[in-house]
Amino acid sequence: MVTGEPVLALRGVSKRFGAVQALTDVEMEVHAGEVVALVGDNGAGKSTLVKSIAGVHQPDDGDIEWGGRAVTIHRPQDAQHLGIATVYQDLALCDNLDVVGNLFLGREIRHFGVVLDEVAMERRSRELLDTLSIRIPSVRIPIASLSGGQRQVVAIARALIGSPKVVMLDEPTAALGVEQTAQVLDLVERLRDQGLGVILISHNMADVMAVADTVVVLRLGRNNGVFDKSSTNQEQIISAITGATDNAVTRRQARGTEGPQ
Amino acid sequence: MTDQTPNGGEERHHRPLPEDTMPKGGVNAPVPVAAEATPAVDPRLIVRQEGVKGYLGEFKRRLSSGELGSVPVVLALIVIWAVFGSLNSSFLSAQNLSNLSQQIVGTGMIAIGVVFVLLLGEIDLSVGSVSGLCAAIYAVLSVTHGVNQGVALLCALVGGAVVGLIQGFFFAKVGVPAFVVTLAGNLGWNGLMLQILGSQGTVNLPGTDVVSKLYSTFYGQQIAAYGAAFFGVALFLAASLFDAQRRRAAGIPSRPLADIVLRTVLLAIVAFLAAYTLNQYKGLPLALLIFLIFIVVLEYMLRRTAYGRKIFALGGNIEGARRAGISVPTIRITVFMICSTMAAVGGLFLAAQIQSASQTSGGGNLLMNAIAAAVIGGTSLFGGRGSTWSALLGALVIGSIQSGMNIEGLSNAIQFMITGAVLLAAVVIDSLARRTQKAAGRA
């Protein structure tokens, strides 16, 4: 299903914080219409990798390729302009503003560049939420009235307002119940169906196996295997995460099995 | 609280990338709706009924979930007027109410500025001193130095804005808590005012200058007050109808007509009653008209412009606002400038009221009254909730208490205690409402 040029590719990305080598020669590819799960134990470098892509940190070494060309991402705005949207774990929604206000915060539709066009924003919000089959009581109630799952889908929908090509979700299901998790996973699949590349960070193996096409395992800041979901199982991934296998990539290469790498 | 994250200022150093264009398509392109797509309505949602009954139901539900808005202050105002009116019939006389509407303007203007700072969840303790300073700038320039009155007025307002710029800089860029910056300002600007007033200490206004006229002018013709009331009501009705029509055209929910009519009738009753009362005495005070114009224009700015939205966003979640690309320091500095400029406007009206700028200008309990007015009026101390109308309502409450006490011949001692108790009650209501809102999932 996933073929051709990757939208986003990391080539040998390394990042050092003082005496800590957070990332070492990390490789990753994201294609259009592909859900890439990024998994690893705490401290494996997942968040650092996401922040490097999002422009919060700059990698010390290696390239970030966008559509086959190396780019430098200095600031979060650069990533947004490229078409990389990030939904952080703490969502960063404004509780006192309504759903429309939050969706368009910082990029409001305006008359004459000053006055808010509430009607146009509300219509766009409804269209967007309908397209994603997001169920919310009303787009005019404050975020404070929404449940955790609803806030999460609003945060994801907000990332989509800027028409990104790649969406990064940092632990989107971490604090959610069963039904809300299902909603978010449905949403992730819908993003894939619309041709977006999705990077999903999660500790929950069930979630990962449910929606991911490719699973990238990080261990101690290094790649510890890239798995194609159709040809792997949960045990294999978990042993790569915990380091029970010395290196899944080398093993697989030694066996000569299939896989993207 | 300085801006240390790299995404703080998009405008400042924007380096376009080769791919620096918004990708088209994606989810914003017309997408075939997913097969099992359901309309985005949650079945658990309590849907408001049509008509007046539904309106009342919605109102009750809002009250019980802690969204009190201006209900407590309106109730308080009714109680205060009923008590003082029954104690002494002259309290509710046209003359007293007309004077009251004029006297609240100075404090109310300062309170508008305080509302802006409170919306950020911050406080400005310097507004009293700043109002005195700017009144002194105007008086000394126009009276002592014979500068053109318009220029002197402008200098006073610019002086207020510069004060806000300085305080905002120390708060937003250096990272000193606003409380401390403005507390230092409270003392410092008071000192500067004494310096400007010089040895004689008091500068009397001639009473024929522009600021005095702004305060003391009345439009005596009957048509003025009624015309202003009619204009206000018509503007409200037209704006509501236009908005509802646009929403219907766009296919999104709009206010039902009955709702609009009900609101318009309520507004018309209040507006024409006020106009009738004012006409029983001297007519429409220009000061009140200017106050109302400031309230309406600034409320529009808060609710309907991108700038106002940013102020609310900052009051709601600073980190969220920053990640959305809002320049937090810029908003903070400009809000402090608005606050200080409004303090200057209020100071000028207060100077016109006592016909002088003196060493006691901006002192006494002016600062507390201005902050109390904003809070009593329903603007939250916790940021993100409020309206410029709370400046009018709060100033009316405080002004009514003072006026009623004066008529009853009660001392300042009692007055202070009662005003303090009302302020405490307002803050208690704000805190309780916030707790209820949290419990009801609305905070």
From TrEMBL, chain A:
Keywords: ATP-binding, Nucleotide-binding. Residues 8-245 form the ABC transporter domain. SUPFAM superfamilies: P-loop containing nucleoside triphosphate hydrolases. SMART domains: AAA. Pfam families: ABC_tran. InterPro entries: AAA+_ATPase, ABC_carbohydrate_import_ATPase, ABC_transporter-like_ATP-bd, ABC_transporter-like_CS, P-loop_NTPase. GO terms for molecular function: ATP binding. Gene3D superfamilies: P-loop containing nucleotide triphosphate hydrolases. It comes from the Bacteria. CDD domains: ABC_Carb_Monos_I. The keyword ATP-binding applies. This is D-xylose transport system ATP-binding protein. It comes from Kitasatospora paracochleata. The lineage of its organism: Bacteria, Bacillati, Actinomycetota, Actinomycetes, Kitasatosporales.
UniProtKB/TrEMBL annotation, chain B:
Pfam families: BPD_transp_2 (PF02653). Keywords: Cell inner membrane, Cell membrane, Membrane, Sugar transport, Transmembrane, Transmembrane helix, Transport. Its main location: membrane. It is found in: Cell membrane. It is a multi-pass membrane protein. InterPro entries: ABC_transp_permease (IPR001851). Signal peptide: none annotated. This is Xylose transport system permease protein XylH.
